[in-house]
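Proteins fold. Shown next:

***
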Amino acid sequence: MHTNSVHILITGFIVVLLAASCNENLPSRNDPKSPLNGFVEFVNTSAYDTTAPAFSSIIVNPEYTVYLHTINTYDETFDGVGAFNGMLELESVQNPKIRKTLKFDKTSLVENRRYKFDPVTNTLTLDPGHELVFFTKWNLHSDDNIKPDSLFPLRTDYDCFKLVYLRRGKVRAVRYWNPRKYWREEFFVSGYLKPFLDLAAVQIPRQKVIIEYSTFNKSDCRSLPGSRN
C-alpha cells in the first residue's frame, strides 16, 4: 500500500472483482463528505496549594488543558501519511480584543489512544470508531500576555461565603473567612485538526465555552475554618 495518500481499506475487494467479471453494474459508492468527526474539550486543571494554614486550596497556577479530538465515524479504516497539526482560536465574547491562539503538532498527541502510528514511515492508521487526540495547556493569558481576569472584576461566590462572629469583650466583630472569588467569561472557539496529509482538515465549528478562574477550589467550601474566640 502506498503511503503518499490516504487510502480506505476495502474488505470486499474479491467480491468487486467477481461482480465486474459478470458485467454487472456496481452500485454507486456513498462515501461520506466528512468521515472524520472533531470536537474540543476544556478541562480545568489549575493547581491549588492545600497546605496554607488559613485558607482552603488557594490557587497557585491557573490552567486549562485543552483537548482536540477527531474520531473515525466511517465504517472503514483510514491509512496514510500523518500531518499531525491543528489550531484553535479563542475570542472573548465580552471583549473581542482578548484572543488566544493554541497550536497543536505531533508532540501534542495523547498517548494510549486507539490509533496506530509507524514513526519510520510516518504512517497513521485510524480504524472505525477510533480516535486521535491532541492536547495543550493554557495559562489563561491572551496572545498579548494579558490575563483576562485582570480586566474584569472578581465576583464573590456566596455559596462559599462564611461569617464568623468573634467575641471581643462586649463587642461582636464580624470576620469573613475565605470568600471564594471567581471570574467567569464566555469565549468563542473555532479551529481545525488535520490528522492526515492528504485528507481535508477536520473543522471545529465556532462555538461558546465558559472559562472560569477562582481564588480557591470550590469543592473545598465545606472545609472553611470555624470561629475563633
Observations:
- Residues 8-31 have pLDDT under 50 and may be disordered.
- The chain has one domain: 7-26+33-154+183-221.
